């Protein structure tokens, strides 16, 4: 018996299942399994990254001031209440480490993003899973699950992998119904895809129990560089900064993110193209007998009749070089999550799903 043991809860963590990135024996592969921007980062970002190599011997900014000011300017926020991290994953981790420990509960919903549970267990706290209704966050079910032990509630709006979202009034009702010791985390990883949506920033400004997280991994095409941020009440941001490592973001990450958020034209073009192709993809799949809920993000959750059919379709698509995501781990065994790629990728998916439906 090994006496060197991890903290309780650690061995309950299921390793994060990332999206497939290669298909055996197929060369022309399109990755539609991780909700990445098919167009990549803008030219301005690539130029900023190239320039940053001349500064690699310097430690990066400790306080991320320049990036925080750029984010604040674009989103009309208070730069002092922004914190930046290694993807929004790191902000989620800071929240769990700072606010939840042994004996505390952290709520996530039935189909909620996997990192909520992983970071909760890593912090020694207890994850509590709350049912959804029709693959959509159910505010009443969350409020019913809250108790004096509840420290954090995570919801994503829009949500991954369902693509659904709840309205501002519902989010406000959730924030206002929480126990006094509970912080609501609004995960806005896909907020940029919703025209005119502030990700919950106005709710953050009018409450002291709400924080919003955002990312550069999706619309800005920077999943590979790992940059995210949070916007919350000053006391919460102060707490998170205490658990943040001083040099958590490299200078390359910082300048890339700043160039990305300043390039509004590129972001808007990516958003519009995603919206156009998402509608086209969802309608074409529905025409083939594969329905989906209306997606507010950069992917479509395609519903098959059962797990067998979903898995067979995933394998068929993979054999054609099209990598999509199985989501059985998210309690959606009959579904496949398909990232909205560029036009050619969307056409290939529809063509291959059509072939699959014919042979089956
Ligand atoms: N939240 C949600 C809902 C996500 O889907 C993702 C990415 N899969 C993240 C957070 C984390 O994104 P990142 O760490 O790349 O910012």
Automatic annotation (TrEMBL):
Pathway participation: Amino-acid biosynthesis; L-histidine biosynthesis; L-histidine from 5-phospho-alpha-D-ribose 1-diphosphate: step 7/9
Annotated ranges, domain Aminotransferase class I/classII large: 28-352
Cofactor: pyridoxal 5'-phosphate
GO molecular function: histidinol-phosphate transaminase activity; pyridoxal phosphate binding
Residues annotated with N6-(pyridoxal phosphate)lysine modification: 218
Complex formation: Homodimer.
Membership in a protein family: Belongs to the class-II pyridoxal-phosphate-dependent aminotransferase family. Histidinol-phosphate aminotransferase subfamily.
HAMAP family: HisC_aminotrans_2
Protein name: Histidinol-phosphate aminotransferase
Species per Swiss-Prot/TrEMBL record: Tranquillimonas alkanivorans
